[in-house]
Records
---
Amino acid sequence: MAKHEEVKDGVIFPVGEKNDAYAQYFKGQSYLKSLVADPAINVGVGNVTFEPGCRNNWHIHHDGYQLLLVTGGEGWYQEEGKQAQFLTVGDVIVTHDGVKHWHGATKDSWFEHLAITAGTPEWLEPVSDEWYDKLEK
Ligand code: MN
């Protein structure tokens, strides 16, 4: 049984629907609940939930940034050329403009974060199984 099964029902905010809009940029199933999508505000806020093993492709937030606030489970964040960071509840990640990175669940745990995002994403290649499977806490 996966760790942190309770996360799949939402920790603070609802998990929302299956994240079909971005499924092509993810491996595994994720869920997205948009919390702030106000055209008069230059950031969007979403609650993103990842099943165990789910992660997004490498990507870049151009002309903006992203703030990740971890609300549930266990996950990974990695910037290109750096070690992956193990994430748990309460961790905060700042991704600056132009930095290539990915984020997602660990192999054996559900994972949830709020994502506060400005700018335009550029989606790149998937995180390979070979790479991902070697990650260790
Ligand atoms: Mn990102």
---
Amino acid sequence: MLELERDQKVKEATDVLTVEDFDSVEFWVGNAYQAAYYYQHALGFEPVAWSSLKTGNRKYASYVMKQGGAKIILSAPYSPSSEMGAHQLMHGDGVKSIGLTVRDVDVAWQESLNRGAKGLTPPTEIQDEFGSLRYATISTYGDTIHKFIERDNYDGIYMPGYHKYTRDVDTEFKGIERIDHIVGNVNWNQMDPTVSFYHDVFGFSTFIEFSENDINTQYSALKSKVVRNYNNLVKMPINEPALGRKMSQIEEYVNYYHSAGVQHIALHTNDILTTVKEMKSKGVEFISVPQTYYSNLSDRVGALDEDIEKLAELGILVDRDENGYLLQLFTKPIQDRPTFFFEVIQRKGSEGFGKGNFKALFESIEREQEERGNL
Ligand code: FE2
């Protein structure tokens, strides 16, 4: 792991683009109604707003799912000839837009274009009874976009055009606090250009790098660099495949997503034991490591607040660095294609990504890959 210095140029650029936090993430899916059921009953997200034929939207159905500060939008097209329909056919269910809260949309738009971003939607103001909201969109890796959102003058749940949504059935469990990081998979040799894009256009800095020596097994490998904004609330690792004896899991993703795209979103919880237990009881499937992982865990990570037997029972992974430790677990892909999955993470001091777990994890992922006939 390499800690990189942030140079002065990067600091100035960060201040110019005004990115403050993740705002929301929009998935384009085949059936938003059914996806919303899974997000609500399996993952604990509350459906809080929607847009559909019944609210006057003739183009697509869309649900705003909220848990703590994490907001996920699930949208599905009514027409195959729409951009959303074409995207769904090509990529299957996946992340279309990573929303970023900015202090000033005009500045974010103008500065990002000046620095070489491809602009899509220029600054646009929309209004309803809750105030006015400004947004703009630019391209990033694959068909994924960033939506800059300025919501200082808006009190509504999500955006004008969305209506309050109420369902009779309660959301039973809410353990997620916020989005911790969002990981992108890019194709061969695209990691450095993508990281440069976040440096040059966003003014983000690189703070951790993992080489194929850090992330490899007997069979396959990947490389990763993590970029972040100035206040560390927006953290985005970028992965690319690396050469191994067999197919990299990143290559498998790109083959099935048919482009670069979002690999996983890490959801932060303050109580991973309860969160994972609840999700498992609702049928969410997680990647599992062999029980031998736990036999010398305390030698590897030292004293923990949690009972190791309970961690072992749920298959939760632990890693420690100089600042503390973290607990994490990864779901299996949550759609038919072996593409997007979620991570559940609890940080206790560590700002890392679980480097000590990479080997055990990737061996588990490879077992899955092999069952799919893709190793
Ligand atoms: Fe992660």
---
Amino acid sequence: MNITQPVQDIINRQINMEFNSAYSYLAMAAYFESRALQGFAKWMRLQSEEENVHAMKFFDYLHDRGGQVTLLEMPKPRIDFSSPLEVFQVSLDQEEKVTASIYDIYELAHNERDYATVSFLKWFNDEQVEEERSAADMVQRLELAGDNPEALLLLDQMAGQRSAAE
Ligand code: FEO
């Protein structure tokens, strides 16, 4: 069964959202780079790369189903933040929006009786649990660190240990 127009449209929207996330994480990486917090910068850069991978998974899936990829416009990402804590709060908020968007695709795919898409989305569903968890953990740790520069530098070091596979 070929993909229906509504499912195709919502997947194109999701491709845009994932590339947007990648762009936004890159802006966060730049924020940290300019403040000599290279560990957080690395974390954000890897996250940006992951979002590109997510976008390309949807891109490839749409082609696998005989659909048409349409790349949409991207807004300028936010580049300024009041603190490292705010960066991760924005990141968590962004991930929650992505999760909600994945649920919207699920709902539509069910309504369209598109069970191939339902099955494809399982990976993203599991991935979002991880994505929200790692952003939420960092928010909690930064809240604990408060205004303590030593704790912040320790967290920066910890964030820098992130590997590409996470
Ligand atoms: Fe692709 Fe972080 O959601």
---
Amino acid sequence: MKTAIVSAMHEELGAVLALMPDERRQPVAGRDFYVGHLHGRDVVAVLSRIGKVAAATTATVLIERFGVDRIVFTGVAGGLRHGVERGHVVVADNFLQHDLDATPIFPRYEVPLYGRSRFDTDPALTHRLAGAVRKALPGTTLHRGLIASGDRFVSTTAESRALQLALPDALAVEMEGAAVAQVCHDYGVPFAAVRTISDRADDDATGDFLQFIRDVASRHTAAIVEAFLSA
Ligand code: SAH
């Protein structure tokens, strides 16, 4: 069983690599894949890079070239729904691309030729990931549900409000998850994703974003990954 741990930010990947005693770097498609072990389990750790296309390429290489059996994504996201606050954690049950619009040929958000707009994560893997969050971060508020992905860093209150109105059940917004979910759907590879809320996707979103990644999100990622792989 080979597990891919995919991170969106350098700081998070660094926190994962610090837990791997024997990783070897293997460059493919301009990306560095780190093959080794974590808690004695076979792991490939990699940076997704930012945005849907970059994340889809990373997921495809993980499956085609490295033969991973499952993909776990860790990263940060902007909170959308009321009550999803900075420092909270969201585990995804499904993903949607909020910037996909092939109307009038297909309904808004629908991925053409798939007949659907939402891609589910794997229920068993997701259950296990949520368990790892509870174990690793007791006392941290954990949400489960829909995450919206798009090729935009949402950082105005106006855009955040518009997204909340259009997608009232979306808990959070980020830039990669829906792409990885679609690739994993195509290949039948189980996928789960966890995001620490770094901002509220509003006019204050960029403030101390990088500081938060360094101080909070990276530690969350390391603790969650460790709990997940030791379970
Ligand atoms: N200003 C940052 C931008 C990084 S992109 C920088 O200079 O580094 C933001 C990353 O965090 C993406 O991987 C995305 O998935 C996630 N993210 C966090 N908050 C987000 C938001 N409000 N909107 C979109 N993506 C967000």
